[in-house]
Each structure stands twice: as structure tokens, then as C-alpha cells.
Amino acid sequence: MQNNEIKKIIIAGGGTAGWLAAALFSTHIPKERLEIVLIESDEIGTIGVGESTIPPFLGLLRNLGINEQDFIKKCHASFKLGIKFDDWHKIGESYFHPFGQIGANIGNTDFYNAWLYATQNGLDIPLQDFSPSSVMARENRFMLPIMAQGSPINNAAFALHLDAKLAAKYLRTHSESQGVKRIEGLIERVEKHENGFIKSLTTKRGEVLDADFFVDCTGFRALLIGDSLGVGYISWENELLCNRAIAVQTENTDIPDAYTTSAAQDFGWRWRIPLQSRSGNGYVFSSQFISDDEATAKLLSQVQGKPITDPMVVPFQSGMRKEIWSKNVLSLGLASGFIEPLESTAIHLVYRTLDFFFRYFPDKNCDAVLANDFNRRIANDYIEIKDFIVAHYCLTEREDTEFWRWCKNQPITQDLRNKIEVFKKSSALRETGPEELFRAPSWYSIFEGMGVRPKRYNFLADALELEELVQFLGKIKPELDNYVRKLPTLKQFINENCKAQ
Ligand SMILES: Cc1cc2nc3c(=O)[nH]c(=O)nc-3n(C[C@H](O)[C@H](O)[C@H](O)COP(=O)(O)OP(=O)(O)OC[C@H]3O[C@@H](n4cnc5c(N)ncnc54)[C@H](O)[C@@H]3O)c2cc1C
């Protein structure tokens, strides 16, 4: 071991962020090398609303050595093939943002441009009919793509809907089995060294807990990064108007859908996340236009199934910390920032942040050169996600309420404006970096769903013989449909493989 190594860390907070951090630290660093303590307060509890994930979550489970089937059973999880957006472009219209690929390259042309070429010449088959995840979601059928190698669905992808409280419990058991020590206690004071680094945390019971490094997972309270170190917050409220959510859980009335529903409302949008045992629902809205009581009444009038929890109000501000890592504190989860949950990216950002942090892992001095570069890198991820979310709003054609009129005319960043303009003019997707989260199929889906089609397809498609191309596309659509219709229903697949325990 080298000198000056970090030997002890304290993770403050035991929500999804805290326990994910504990699981990742304890998986990657042997307990003889790093002592990990997590402190959480039952008096405060966790937010418990982050229940929809994206496909890298499955990679995370593998990374942690967690058995996917066991996790699904114990977290009452269900499968998610994408997100269905209702009424975002125009009232009465829906579109799907699937996981995985849409078709496959044809010759030297990417599928989207081949499809565009055929569509501009008379083909009448929607883009999503070539996405295996979209077709499975539409038919409510499911199979793991890995169990269908060489079939029309082998380029599908999926994620999970999970019970946030059960997931935190699962990750806690996993972390404790790897040597993480948990302390129940309310942090009341934070002591600092002369250089401004955090020295110790003192609990209500008077326990003093010191460490070399601290991970702030205290949720929106941001006790260490915000209150103690005074790191400010960059607000995106001028780009994303929604600033509150009402959340309520309901009984399942029907077979759960294999997707998250995001239904646009007069002043925001409503989510529905079906798990095996119940569904999570919420209305994300802007308080400029509707009160908590009105939003609650609206949500309760629309949910399917009997409510099983009281509606909970969650105020938030989309934005991020000016520095996610400052001195000897790394912030994660809601303490580090939050972008409204339209594309279910918050849990992803927790392990993305940790993934980068491990690349830059410091010694006790926490060299500012490392922290600065890390902060630059992770800020890019936040901004990429924020712009992707803004694209869902600013491309609307709705003008029926003040909220939607504002969205349609809202100020957007030059980067996003360029992305939209370049696509409209040429079908090219302007990339912001090599490690982008949302890749071509995601942008194609949102653009197509929001009525944005390029003026021209990429010239490489001209090399394709049009008649053959149209025939080929006309043939693969029914092949995919027929294959999917023979798959188990989502319910059958779950019952046979991973029924909730
Ligand atoms: C409306 C809404 C919907 C969301 N939907 C999604 C989604 O679909 N998908 C997704 O990926 N994410 C979603 N998120 C985000 C997701 O909920 C969070 O990223 C995730 O739950 C992590 O939360 P957390 O652990 O940072 O905070 P919390 O769950 O709030 O945990 C904070 C922890 O800190 C502890 N704590 C706080 N103060 C003290 C103290 N003084 N002493 C000791 N302990 C303390 C608490 O006890 C708790 O253990 C959503 C968020 C919101 C607001």
C-alpha cells in the first residue's frame, strides 16, 4: 500500500445512493484495505420514490456480483422495455422510447437512414415497428434477449422497475455481508479541520465518527457538501419548469405493463411504474400553475387501482452541485443534484459518478487537480441528460395551457439548438462526447415521436436499391411481430422465472 492512502470512509445516508455506494466501495476495495461505515437515521427515513431504471442498471448488478433473478424476486421488480409518452407532442398522440436498437445497419447505411429513404419513397411502416423492445412492450410479451441469440429480438434491451425501499434493503444486506458497518443515528454536527476538510460527524447520541473521506448521501438535505462545505447549486429552473411531485402507490388492477408510462398533463406529466406487487404513480408539475391540492386531486382521479399510501409531496429543483466532489467529500444521489425523473436517470447518475470516482480515486490530500477534472467530466453527464430532457418539452406542438406554451417557446442551450438543427437539415446526430448515455436510437425515437424528421436522408442510403429495400423492410416487420407474439407474456415470464418473494 502507498503512503497517505484513504483507510476509512463514512457514507452519510442510507437511501438508494448510500447503499449503492456502500455496495460498490465494498465490492471494489477489500475490507482489509478500506474501512466503510454507513450512518443513517430512521427518524428521517428515505425518499423511496426512485423506482424506474435504465439498462446499465443490469450491468451494475453484475458488477456487484448480485444475482439478477434473486434481486428481481426480492425487490418485487418487473421488466421495463422503455417509456411510453402520451400527449407530449399533441393531445391524443403517443410514442415509445425503447431500450436497445431499432433495426440493424443495411449495407453501409444505418437503419434509421435506410428507413427514412424508404419512408420518403412510400414505405408506410412506423420506425418503432422495427424496435424489438417497442414491439415486445406493445404486445406485453417478454424474453431476455440473451436467451434469444440470433433471433429478431436479440438487439433488444431492458431495465427494471423496482421497489426502492426493498432495493435499499437488498443492497444493505449485500454490503453488510462484505464488511460495511451500519450505524443508526442522526447526524447533528459536522466538525472540520483547519484546511476546511471534514474531520468528523457527531450524532444526537453524542457519538463522534471520524474518517479520511466522506460520501454525502443525505438526500436533498446535502448536509456535508451543501450545509458544511457550502458548495453552491446550479439551478436549471429556467430550462425545466417542473419543481414538485406528488407520489402515491396503488394496487395493481391489471397485468403490469413492461414499460414506464409518462402521460403529459396540463401542467407537467404523470408517471406510472408497475412493479410485480403494486404500482408507483406521481404527478410532476410546476407550482407556478397548479397547487399541491389540485395536483393531488388530479393524480388521484387518474390512477388505476386503489391507493395504498398517502400522497406525498416532494419539492425539488432541477440542477446540480457546482462541485460534486469538493475537498474530502463526494456527493451522490439527491445531495449531488437532481434532474426531473422523466427518463429515470437519477440512480444511473449515482453509479456513473462512482464509476468516475474510482478512476480518479485520491489519497488523503484529495488533490484539487483530480477533483476538478472529475467535476468537469461528471458535469458533462448531467448536462447531456438535462438537454435530452429539455428536448422532450421544447419540441411540443401543444399550446393548450400556459405551461405548454412556455415549453414550446422556452429558451434552450446553443448545444441543444445545434443538435436539433443539424438533425433537421441532414439526419446527422451531433455527438457531445464518446461516452454519451443517450445514443442514436434514443434521439431518433424522441425526434420521431415529437414530429421532427430530417429534410434529407444520408446520401449513403442512395447506394441501396429502393425496391429491394422496401421489400426487405416489408418482410422483416411481420417476422418480428410473429416472433414476439410467440414469446411468453410478461406475466408468464415473471411467474416462471422470478416471481416476487
Ligand atoms: C419525484 C421523484 C421521482 C424519482 N423517480 C426516479 C426514477 O424513476 N428513477 C431514478 O433513477 N430515480 C428517481 N428519482 C431519484 C431517486 O429517488 C434518488 O436518486 C434515489 O432515491 C437516491 O436518493 P438518495 O439516497 O440520494 O436520498 P434519500 O432516499 O432521501 O436518502 C437520504 C438518506 O440520508 C439520511 N439522512 C439525511 N439526513 C440525515 C442526518 N442528519 N443524519 C443521518 N442520516 C441522515 C436519511 O436517513 C436517508 O437514509 C426520483 C426522485 C424524485 C424526487
Describe this protein's structure.
The structure is a single chain. It is globular, with a radius of gyration of 23 Å. The protein folds into 3 domains: 8-51 and 163-235 and 318-384, 3-Layer(bba) Sandwich (FAD/NAD(P)-binding domain), CATH 3.50.50; 82-157 and 413-488, no CATH class; 250-315, no CATH class. The protein contains 15 helices and 21 strands. Helix content is 35%, strand content 19%. With 501 residues, the protein is an alpha+beta fold. It has helices spanning 16-28, 56-63, 68-74, 111-119, 132-139, 164-177, 223-228, 292-302, 346-359, 368-394, 402-408, 414-426, 440-449, 466-485, 490-497, and strands spanning 8-12, 35-40, 78-80, 82-86, 94-98, 159-161, 181-184, 187-192, 198-203, 208-210, 213-216, 233-235, 244-250, 260-265, 268-274, 279-285, 312-315, 319-321, 325-326, 329-331, 337-338.
